[in-house]
Model the fold of this input.
Amino acid sequence: MDTLYRPGGAVDVRATLRPLQRGSGDPAFQVVGSDTWLALRTPAGGASVLVRRAGSDTIAVSAWGDGAAWAVTHAPDLLGRGDDWSELDVSAHAFLAEARHRQPGLRLLRTNTVVAMLVPAIMEQKVTSRQAWRAWRYLLRRFGDPAPGPVPVEMFVPPAPEQWARIPSWEWHKAGIEPGRSATVMRAVKVAPALERTLALGRGGTVVSQRLQSVPGIGQWTAAETAQRAHGDPDAPSVGDYHVPALVGWALTGGPVDDDGMLELLEPWRGHRERVVRLIGGSGFRKPAFGPRMTIQDHRWH
Done:
């Protein structure tokens, strides 16, 4: 199934879809040349999706599998439809003004799939990205469905809620996911229909965050990481992140800050705080590489 999307403005496909990638070896996300391939779990089933440029103002989307029609219908949301940057004014801050000038096609995506975004966010709680991405790869290859269609490499559709629920405890252990996080996944997939209904509340916000955090084990960080992707929330910075506050602090003031300091710096752009964080992240700016690093703990062998 195919469609052509004409967004009526600049869209950087790679930058917009990047938050869906869980490491370079993600079995559900692959970039081959100028093509971006996704293996998605949709409400209608699994789908492989190919996104590519078809002209200066046109994006071609092709999809295969049971969820193909759903994926094509919602492809414009995935590419930032409805994400309005017109009220974000960063002209008074030289760094942000330049970052925005260099990234005119950056958009916030909306997947319209809550649990599919929530489960990997739970896996990323309080561990390094390397650990979480390794677990993600293992579990998708072990319990995901082979991606349909002419995918360029072996890819896997993430499990549906009922499939996550059937994964035995020892497989979570092999993946490096300790009982606390796996139990949170189990609680989340058990109430999957209620979590999906938060999409009707719009592009995130306080009520969405509260609904997500009503599941024991899901806190502010996990709710924000989920709402950024599932709902397209433009105002949900990742409070509690190991790296984001320092990155924002160094970019905006030349020094590190904590969560409270980050929120204070972002306050002038309330309503657009995640957009500002994404501008910083996509600008190429890197904070100085010194200071403590999170210790990598491997629980798989004990």
Strands lie at 2-5, 29-32, 35-42, 45-55, 58-64, 145-146, 156-157. Confidence is low (pLDDT under 50) at residues 293-302.
